[in-house]
Amino acid sequence: MKVISIGKGNTILKYESVASSYCKIMKTEEATNIGIISIEPNGILGYHQAPVPQLFHVVEGEGWIRDGSEEKIPIKKGYAVFWEQGEWHEVGSDTGLTAVVIQAVNLKNPF
Predict the structure, then answer these.
(1) For residue 85, which of 45, 54, 109 has the smallest C-alpha distance?
(2) Percent helix, strand and coil across the chain, each rounded to 5?
(3) How far apart are alpha carbons 8 and 68 in whole angstroms?
(4) Hey, which residues does 48 pair with through a beta bridge?
(5) CA 1 from chain center: how many Å?
(6) What are the pLDDT digits (tens) for 21-30?
(7) Which residues of the chain have pLDDT under 50?
(8) How far apart are CA 72 and CA 100, in angstroms?
(9) Got the DSSP string for 22-49?
(10) Residue 50 DSSP symbol
(11) Are 92 and 73 in contact (CB under 8 A)?
């Protein structure tokens, strides 16, 4: 058994992001990334395209997501969103949130 400290990870500087960080947990041989994104209060993971299919699962807190529209869709602990490769999106939070993110070229929509 190995116990590891996850921590906050590295600050996200791309996409005009604010008070957001990403901590990669694991990478598989099949080009799969599994990580944690932390968005601090009033933080934003700026508008960008998904490089590969992504599952974004909120495990703590609440916030919002949006696609190309101006509408912010609420999301909170226990909910997830799946983005196809190339899909534009943005995530933010007024109070802070933490999400597990799984990204892989062959990731299939679980819903």
Answers:
(1) 54
(2) 5, 60, 40
(3) 28
(4) 89
(5) 28
(6) 887 765 667 7
(7) 1-3
(8) 20
(9) EEEEEE-TTSEEEEEEEEEEEEEEEEEE
(10) -
(11) no
Name the burial class of residue 105, with classes exposed (0-12), middle (13-18) and buried (19+) by CB atoms within 10 angstroms of its CB. exposed
Q: Encoding tokens for residue 106?
A: 């062959």
**Predicted pLDDT of residue 31:** 78
Q: Identify the pLDDT of residue 22.
A: 84
- Predicted local distance difference test score (pLDDT) of residue 46: 94
**How far is residue 20 CA from its own chain's centroid?**
10
**DSSP per residue, 4-24:** ------EE--GGG-EEEEEEE
Q: What pLDDT was estimated at residue 3?
A: 46
Sequence-separated (6 or more) residues with CB below 8 Å from residue 1: none
Distances (CA, A) of 27 to 32, 33, 35, 104: 5, 5, 9, 10
